[in-house]
Amino acid sequence: MASKLLRAVVLGPPGSGKGTVCERIARSFGLQHLSSGQFLRESLRGGGGNSGAAGWVLLAPITAAFLPLLTAPFCRGACTGFPRTLGQAEALDRICELDLVISLNIPFETLKDRLSARWVHPASGRVYNMDFNPPHVQGVDDLTGEPLVQREDDKPEAVAARLRKYKDAAKPVIELYKSRGILHSFSGTETNKIWPYVYTLLSSKIPPILSDEEN
C-alpha cells in the first residue's frame, strides 16, 4: 500500500486510454482504481435498472453515490471517468481536495480509429480493440467465451458526435484544474509512450512499489 494518501483524477476523451493508465498507476503505486463506469455497471446489475435509460437518468445519483468512495478512509486512489462536467467537478470540490489531475491529449483522428475498432464484454466492461488488442477468438470474451458487442456509440457514425460533446463538456473542467496548478497534460498517440511520463510524475509524489519496467 502506498505510504502517502494521494487522490488523483485521470481525464481524457473516450478511447484515450484512461482505464489502462489508471490500472498501471494502481499496480505501480499501490493505489486503488475507482472507475465510474464500473460503478455504474455494478449498480445496474444490483438494481436491475435499464442500461439504455440509466446513462441519462442516473447521472445525478452517480455523483451522490460515487463521490463518498473518494473520501473513504481506505481510499488512496486514482479515479477515471469522473468528473465529466464542471458541475461534477464542483460537487467533487465540496468533499474532496485533489492532489493532481492527469489529462490525456490524444488526436481525435486516432480516437476515431480506436473507438470504431472497439468491442466490449457487456457484463464485465472488458474492452478489446480489433487492431491492437483483439480477443483470442474473434467475437468472444477471452475469460467467459461470451459474445462481444460493439456499443452503439462506438459505431463510426456516432464517434465524431461523442468526441465533440466531450470536448465541449471537458473544456471548463480542464481550465478549472489548470488554474489551480494541479493539471498535468500528456500528449501522444500510444499509451505505452505516454505512460513513462505519467510514471515519472507520480514517482515525484509517492514512492512506487514497481519499477516502470515491471509494469
UniProtKB/TrEMBL annotation:
Keywords from the UniProt entry: Kinase, Nucleotide-binding, Transferase
Which Gene3D superfamilies is this protein grouped with? P-loop containing nucleotide triphosphate hydrolases
Q: Which family does it belong to?
A: Belongs to the adenylate kinase family.
Among Pfam families, the record links this protein to:
AAA_17, ADK, ADK_lid
Q: Which HAMAP family match?
A: Adenylate_kinase_Adk
InterPro entries for this protein: Adenylat/UMP-CMP_kin (IPR000850), Adenylate_kinase_lid-dom (IPR007862), P-loop_NTPase (IPR027417)
Q: Which PANTHER family match?
A: NUCLEOTIDE KINASE
Q: Which gene encodes it?
A: Ak4
In what residue span(s) does the Adenylate kinase active site lid domain sit? 118-153
GO molecular-function term, one example from the UniProt record: AMP kinase activity
Q: What is this protein called?
A: KAD4 kinase
